[in-house]
């Protein structure tokens, strides 16, 4: 199309070639590499975040169990279900959540903690349920007065409670 004369390109073509920049192939290659990296790292990151949420649930259940055992030591009975929140200094019947800094704040927490008194105040069951979404691997955490731990997900108790 262009004729070379004495090894020089026409002025318009030479200006275009000296402008620099990236070719379309180079841009598509970079986008492809970024896509592959994102596909590899995002699931791992999501699992890492979910493990942090699970730790919050376990910690909240153990804290609740500690408060219940203190109460049992003093009064020889666990509180009725409605009075569970009073162990945290909250009004009777208030909801308890997993955030260590704000047990009555659902937006700062990932799990809701529920308590059920059993056998006339001699036993209990604590449950941690994810507030938003589901956790297929560990599901709902439970802990009872004998420190028996269970989960409803596909993972084993040992995997979820470590």
Describe the structure.
39% of the residues lie in helices and 15% in strands. It has 162 residues and is an alpha+beta fold. It has one domain. A 5-stranded antiparallel β-sheet has the order 1-2-3-4-5, covered by helices on one side. Strand 2 and strand 3 form a beta hairpin. The longest helix has 52 residues. It starts with 10 loop residues before the first helix and ends with a helix.
Per-chain topology:
Layout: H1 11-17, H2 24-75, E1 96-97, E2 111-118, E3 123-130, E4 141-144, E5 149-151, H3 157-160
Antiparallel strand pairs: 1-2, 2-3, 3-4, 4-5
Précis, in short:
The chain is of the alpha+beta class and 162 residues long. It has one domain. The chain is 39% helix and 15% strand.
- Give the rounded overall mean pLDDT: 88
| Number of individual domains | 1
**Main sheet characteristics:** 5 strands, antiparallel
Structural class: alpha+beta
Poorly predicted runs: none
The DSSP helix count reads: 3
Give the CA-based shape.
elongated
Rounded to the nearest angstrom, the radius of gyration is: 30 Å
What share of residues are in beta strands? 15-25%
The N- and C-terminal alpha carbons lie at a distance of 71 Å
Strand tally, please? 5
Main β-sheet, spatial strand arrangement: 1-2-3-4-5
- Helix content estimate: 25-40%
Sketch the topology as an H/E string, one letter per element. HHEEEEEH
């Amino acid at each position: 199309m262009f004729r070379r004369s004495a090894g020089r390109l026409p002025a318009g073509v030479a200006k275009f070639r000296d402008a620099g920049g990236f070719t379309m192939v180079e841009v598509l290659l970079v986008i492809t590499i970024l896509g592959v990296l994102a596909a590899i790292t995002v699931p791992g990151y999501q699992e890492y975040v979910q493990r942090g949420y699970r730790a919050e649930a376990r910690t909240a259940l153990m804290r609740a169990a500690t408060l219940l055992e203190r109460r049992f030591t003093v009064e020889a009975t666990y509180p009725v279900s409605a009075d569970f929140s009073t162990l945290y200094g909250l009004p009777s019947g208030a909801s308890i959540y997993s955030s260590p800094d704000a047990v009555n704040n659902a937006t700062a927490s990932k799990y809701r903690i529920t308590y059920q008194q059993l056998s006339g105040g001699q036993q209990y069951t604590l449950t941690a349920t994810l507030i938003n979404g589901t956790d297929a691997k560990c599901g709902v955490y439970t802990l009872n007065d004998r420190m028996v731990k269970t989960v409803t997900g596909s993972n084993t108790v040992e995997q979820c409670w470590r």
